[in-house]
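Input record, target 12 of the design panel.
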């Protein structure tokens, strides 16, 4: 979460219910700060066409909204994306 923090509103570490310093398993993505969510500072400059090209690429660089992705994932020539998860 780009607008979360591991510190509370006075700059101290987030605490657990037992008043111990929280770790990533306790606070997850941190505490949301609505003022930062309004202006996160991180913006992906992507247009509808960018998404269309990524999702509807038939392998030759041309977007085809009717293209059906084959089951063989080796056909996908897009970049490998990695999204870390919090277990």
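The sequence produced for target 12 reads:
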């Amino acid at each position: 979460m780009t607008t979360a923090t591991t510190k509370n509103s006075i700059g101290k570490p987030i605490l657990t219910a037992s008043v111990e310093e929280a770790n990533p398993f306790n606070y997850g993505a941190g505490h949301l700060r609505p003022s930062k969510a309004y202006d996160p500072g991180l913006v992906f400059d992507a247009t509808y066409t960018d998404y269309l090209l990524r999702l509807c690429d038939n392998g030759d660089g041309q977007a085809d909204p009717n293209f059906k992705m084959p089951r063989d994932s080796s056909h996908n020539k897009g970049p490998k994306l990695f999204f870390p998860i919090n277990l």
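Residues 44-76 form one domain.
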